[in-house]
Amino acid sequence: MRIPAVVEPVVELDDEQRVRSARHLLLPGIGLTGQRRLRSARVCVLGAGGLGAPVLQYLAAAGVGTIGVVDDDEVDLSNLQRQVVHGSSDVGRRKVDSAADAVAAIDPGVVVVRHDVRLTRENAADVLAGYDVLVDGTDNFPTRYLVSDTAAALGVPVVWGSVLRFDAQVSVFWSAPPSGAGVTLRDLFPREPRPDEVPSCAEAGVLGALCGQVGSLMATEVVKLVCGVGEPLLGRVLVVDALRARWSQVPVVPRADVPADDVPADDVPADDVPPDDVPAVSVDALAERLDDPADPVVVVDVREAYEVEATPFPGAVHVPLARVLDGSALRAWEHGRDVVVVCHAGARSHAAAQVLRAAGVQAANLTGGVVAWRARTPS
């Protein structure tokens, strides 16, 4: 889907900027006009961490005129494995200051706006207003949903990325693009996961070099949106499996039932999931089916291997979520057409069930996941 350029080429380039951007000026679709758009652009990068670091570097190198940096954290020694915008001498400094220095080292003509704040529902609209494109490189779900919701209210596109262990996802969310149907993060993941449902990078680890790959992809999406060149990842999620060197896509379509003003996940009971096309199965109902040979069902566990080893679900087939999302598990699906999907507490299994149902598998989601199952049948 082609999208018109989101920025007008109002800034003229001086001689030094023309030399800096010489290789861009040769590119069809960018050229002088596109480079003027980049210099006129205001792009806000949320998170100066693993994903934000390469995004900041490549946006500065691309000649983006104004870059906002939102981060209230300080540089820690453990950050340096992947957050390449910072160095050893920056440990203990504010990330916004370290990031601003790194941008200035690439191009001192880029204006850096430092937002040394934690984004909240009270300040998000004020912080993010006035930017042409937002880049979400944050590392927690509450902030990701807040960025998506705020961007939808402001009507600006969000370039979104996520990395965990050896897997990553990249997409573009925009509630009301000039052409075509818009999508937001809530169309991909309707309900915000609880803190214990998805491990963080601090808990599960992350491959540092993968952050560079994904951050570069995100910076490319920004350039495409600003210049109006190519087809952005709007309505598509690019899924990267670094260990197997495989890239695949998952379509995203608007969901008519996503609530406009979602309640924070901590206030939502585990079984109070917004209605959709994924049937919910209670632990009692699943137990009855498993005891009834006349009603065969396969339980598919989409958790990570270490979770399955620690708390196995009896008789379940292990299919990691990443293999469902990237489609590799579907190419040779051997687990029947009637399955109940399970994860720790129900969020990841819900997303997997959506993809399986789109592929023709009659998948249902176990409400409450392994947590609810173990509460019913304590060991």
Automatic annotation (TrEMBL):
Highest taxon, organism lineage: Bacteria
MF terms in GO: ATP binding; nucleotidyltransferase activity; sulfotransferase activity; thiosulfate-cyanide sulfurtransferase activity; ubiquitin-like modifier activating enzyme activity
SUPFAM superfamilies reported for this sequence: Activating enzymes of the ubiquitin-like proteins, Rhodanese/Cell cycle control phosphatase
Cellular component GO terms, alphabetical: cytosol
ATP-binding found in the keyword field: yes
Record keywords: ATP-binding, Nucleotide-binding, Nucleotidyltransferase, Transferase
UniProt cross-references to Pfam families, sorted A to Z: Rhodanese, ThiF
Domain Rhodanese: 293-378
PANTHER family documented for this protein: ADENYLYLTRANSFERASE AND SULFURTRANSFERASE MOCS3, UBIQUITIN-ACTIVATING ENZYME E1
Name of protein: Adenylyltransferase/sulfurtransferase MoeZ
